Amino acid sequence: MALTGRLARSPLLRIGLVLWLVGSAHVLALLLAPVIHPNYFPLFAAAVGLSSWIGGLAHGLGAAALSTLLILYFFVAPAGVALAAFVAGSGLLAWLCASLRQSRDLFTSTLCSIEDAVVAFDRKGRVRFINPIAETLSGWNREQAKGRKLPQLLNLVDASTGLPVKDPVETALRENRIVEVNGPLALAGSDGRRIPIEHTVAPILDRNGERQGAILVLRDVSGRLRLQQELRELHKMEAVGRLAGGVAHDFNNLLTVITGYAETLRSGLSPLDPLRSAAEEIVHASERAAMVTRRLLAFSRQQPIQHRMLDLNAVVRGAKDALDQVLGKGIELNLMLDSKPAYVRADQGQVEQTILNLAMNARDAMPDGGTFTLETGQVEVESPGEPGRGDIPPGSYALLAASDSGLGMDDETRSRAFEPFFTTKEKGEGAGLGLSTVYGFVKQSAGYITVFSKVGCGTIFEIYLPHAPEGEVVKKVAPKATPRGSETILVAEDEEDVRKMVAAILRSKGYKVYEARDGQEACDIAGQQKEPIHLVLTDILMPRMDGLALTDALKPSRPKVKVLYMSGYMDSSILREKIADPATVFLYKPFTPDALMRKVRDVLDS
User: Fold this and answer.
1) 580-589: long-range pairs with CB below 8 Å, 24+
2) Could you tell me what percent of the chain has a pLDDT over 70?
3) Residue 590, preceding bond cis, omega within 30 degrees?
4) How many CB atoms lie within 10 A of CB 58?
5) What is the CA radius of gyration of the chain?
6) Inter-residue contact 90 to 116 (CB < 8 Å)
7) Alpha-carbon gap, residue 312 to 304, rounded angstroms
8) 539-574 burial by CB neighbour count: b if 16+ within 10 A, else e?
9) I need a surface site. Which of 5, 128, 375, 422 has the fewest CB within 10 A?
10) 574 pLDDT exceeds 70?
11) pLDDT digits (tens, 9 = 90+) for 218-265
12) Cα-flanking dihedrals φ and ψ of residue 176, to 5°?
């Protein structure tokens, strides 16, 4: 095998072999001349045939020409007829041998190019040929495998029981039929590892239908099974996400009512009234509950994404209580926040979810406890390829770094850390989506992420988000009095408690309000009223007719009416695209009365 490989790569070796074969035939002819005279030709014909087989047609014809010259010079100059017959015969022999070799090489290279394992057997079930994939799976090379039976080459077992399966090659040869995989099979390795496979065995028949052997095609299906498992996990996560999104939707409606009435109660109480502190606690509890719904919606990926100016320091501080719950008592939380605001343009819910995902990853890496540190700062990248920063382009960035004192990762694990569904946990203990979600958020925010880790030394994740220019930072101003108005507003909301609260708040500020339980009823009210309707305040998800369909239905008859959507749940990519339109004005649930009134006034005055 090694000599054949070297001959295939070296033309000089093939030429040398031709000269050696012809020379050997000539020497033998001289030595045996007294015995074989004048039958020298078989020796030279053998040299020509071997030259054609090994080197191809060109080398075979060269051997024939050289043999002719040697015979002419040393042996039978008068025997012209015999010599002519030798020349013609040797040329034909060279062509036949080279053609056979070419056909054989084409067949072999075809089988070796197939990505499945291919094993050919003779009529007694012994191996005649295996391709490189079969060599890898069996652990035998081609020469070692020849002559063996299938059970000696591959240990095929039932994937569920681990028991050996019946030799399919013997069945195919005995019954002269194709034998396909029946049930889950696996290839058991000497190291105890099992590779899931599927196979087909077919008898090899000649032109007369006579059985000459069998061929086994075996495929490693572990990759396909892994993709199927990932798809099932994805569907499971989608179902859980829909459930979480539905719960958050209902909870948001309740929070809108609780927040609205709590704010109304607080504003109606004197600062000295002992009940005012109770009302303030209700408002604060509602705000914390609103954060829970944002996390649920972020998990379900049905949260309306709202990129706005954020101070990373403030977001980290706001997530401290949730971090304490995630990390537990055995892990110390250490916050190292920059003294200056770290402004970025991002979605707050996604930033919070990223922080929690990094905390959960750190918690799992510290089963015996440790320290989890969150650090913020401002970084100037001078040039691409700076040490430790990969391919981050030059610019000003806000840094969010998360480090732990956990187990750390080896190089292979670190290189796959952001792959969806990749996890080092036991089966059923994790879906492998936490860090991939972090990576997705960073890329959506035009940022970069790096990871540093070493086994036994912990892990550091560094997130670089484009720093918001100072001119874009929204400066805080003293709040003005809640605006009032006298316009007519049509409120469409299927949740009665929310609808009544919104209508009551609007009426208390001087607006004239019509209430509708869904889009269809809102259309009916708009058709019955002759007076102008200045604003439609509508929920998006409603029975019979949703908010988007409502506005489309009102456009022909009331083209100048303004629209303000309200919702806290997006269960459709179409809705998310609509809300992402800059021309669409949206109010996120839960909202306070003050936020409602200011948004209404902004839309009416726009």
Assistant:
1) 580/305, 586/304, 588/304, 588/306, 589/252, 589/253, 589/255, 589/256
2) 73
3) yes
4) 16
5) 40
6) no
7) 20
8) bbbbeebbbbebbebbeeebeebbbbbbbbbbbeee
9) 5
10) no
11) 888 777 777 777 677 667 666 766 676 677 777 778 888 888 888 888
12) 55, 50
**Spacing of C-alpha 466 from chain mean position:** 26
Q: How far apart are CA 245 and CA 239, in angstroms?
A: 10
pLDDT tens digits along 407-429: 888 777 777 776 665 565 555 44
> What phi and psi, each to the nearest 5 degrees, are found at residue 22?
-65, -40
Number of H helices, E strands in the chain: 22, 19
- Rounded-to-integer distance, Cα 418 and Cα 235, Å: 20
Length, in residues, of the chain: 606
Contact 431, 233 (CB under 8 A): yes
Instruction: Quote the pTM value.
Output: 0.49
Contact between 49 and 60 (Cβ < 8 Å): yes
* Contact criterion met (CB below 8 Å) for 397 and 378: yes
Considering only the C-alpha atoms of the chain, give the largest distance between any 2 of them, rounded to a whole number of Å. 137
pLDDT of residue 384: 65
Q: How far apart are CA 87 and CA 538, in angstroms?
A: 98
Q: Check if the beta carbon of residue 307 is closer than 8 Å to that of residue 347.
A: yes
- Give tens-digit pLDDT for 486-496: 888 999 988 88
